[in-house]
Amino acid sequence: MNAVWKVLNIVKQNPLIVVCVVVIVCSAVSFVWPTRVQGTAFVKSMESRSSDIGKIKQYFSKSIVIPAENPDDPPRRITTVIKPQVIEAVQQINQDLQTQYTEIFKLANEHNRAGHEVMLQGLFPAPVDQAKPYNARGAYLSEIVRMYHALKPGQPLGAKEIQEALAAVQEEYVRNIFPAPTNLSDLQLAEIAQKQAEKLVQLHEDHARSIGVYVTPLYLDFSQPGSWNPGPFVLGKWAQPGALPPMGAIWEGQMQLWVQQDLVRAIRLCNDMDKPGASVLTAPIKNLVSITMNDGTVGKANPEEQNIDKRLPDNFKQSHTGRTSNPLYDVRQATMVMHVDTLKIPQVINAISKVNFMTVLGIKVTNVDEYEALRAGYHYGGRNVSQVELTVETLWMRQWITGHNTPEAAVAEYASTLPADDEFNKLTDEKKVEYVKSHGIFQAGLMPDSVRASIGLAPRDPNYQAPQNSGGGKATGAGARF
To answer: How many Cα atoms within 13 Å fall on the side-chain side of residue 204?
Structure first.
């Protein structure tokens, strides 16, 4: 208690000291409070600044995706600095690739379609009248005959012609003997036989000079359908006289006709048949034994896979190319059996690869006895010849076969070829559809609705109903040989 009174006395006697103490205490308190408040704001400001700096750094090392140089390779991922020049460069790359894709796609379709005319106008995708499917038979057979003659075909000389020529050799030999012998000696008979052998070879050689390739005779007579011989070709059973053939079978016949026409073009190209004097004597392909095909395509895209921008995985179970039918193209295969100059087999394969989109998938080679062939009347020009069996893959672009899936697809395709400020892009969606339809940009395709439905594509006719008994577009026996 005494201590308290002493302190109070000191305070009373020294008021200046008390004031100083109070000022010091208040200053300490006033310093601590604002500094703490300002420190919290500073920390928040630094955290925000650090976040902004992090975002900026992201643009200095941004990972972007650009298309690969090889379309079959996955897109490339690179790290770069995002700046106007980079954005402009990537946009230009995508624009250039889109332009190139559009042009290549157009050229591919034009190349694939060139030279492939329908057998009868007004038949596909739906006949314009009920007579068209019936009339298709005659048109189809006419195309088979035309294809046959395009080969400059020929067969060995007939027995009667050979016998008459050999008899003439003997008669001429006897006329030159004086006096005329009653009986020919063994020596004279041997000389006659030698001259006849030489004449026979010359006959075959002269005859071969008029032939482009040896081919089994073609015989088609509407009055005797049971005795038809399709030669080396595949001929659809639907073409025989009878009931109205289904559109699916007619379409299969059309597709197989186009495939065979391409193979004939390859033979003509390989044998250089447009060259004056070209003949089977010097040609790589000596004898077309047969062409065979299975109905339908190799695989098919499921309905959920009908996206042209989505690449389907390779299927190497079907072929070593891995290609199967997909929304971009259909795949078909054919088998050719031929007698070929052995040294020119590579030339045959190259010729096939130059026509349309055809690829040789497999080859089997067996020996041919040229002397036995000559005895049968086949003159191969004295060349070593092999029998070659080729499996050939052909591709058919759906752009012209099936047409655009929808008018909207045609709109998107057409818009991709135009500048962004083009008047077309300013139209409403409805007007764009009207435009592509009225200007022939939208392609309905040639494929009948029954076949479209069978591969998961929407029929063109909104009232189309699949036949109850045939399962839609199947064309059983459409390309059978008989």
So the answer is: 20
Q: Which residue has the tokens 């030999």?
A: 173
Query: How does pLDDT run along the chain (482 residues), one tens digit per residue?
Result: 555 455 555 545 555 565 555 555 555 555 444 555 556 766 676 666 666 666 666 655 667 777 776 766 777 777 766 667 767 777 777 777 777 877 888 899 999 999 999 999 999 999 999 999 999 999 999 999 999 999 999 999 988 888 888 899 888 888 888 777 778 888 988 998 999 889 888 888 999 999 999 999 999 876 776 778 999 999 999 998 888 899 999 999 999 999 999 999 999 999 999 999 999 999 999 999 999 998 889 887 665 555 666 667 777 877 788 888 888 899 999 999 999 999 999 999 999 999 999 999 999 999 999 999 998 999 999 999 999 999 999 999 998 999 887 888 888 888 877 887 788 988 999 999 999 999 888 888 999 999 998 888 888 888 888 776 544 444 444 454 43
* Cα 456 to Cα 450: distance, rounded to the nearest angstrom: 10
CA 287, CA 337: separation in Å to the nearest integer? 9
Q: How far apart are CA 23 and CA 261, in angstroms?
A: 111
Angle, CA of 174, 177 and 183, to the nearest 5°: 65
Q: Are 346 and 390 in contact (CB under 8 A)?
A: no
Residue spans of the domains in the chain: they are 2-60, 63-112, 407-442
Environment class of 183 (CB within 10 Å of its CB; exposed 0-12, middle 13-18, buried 19+): exposed
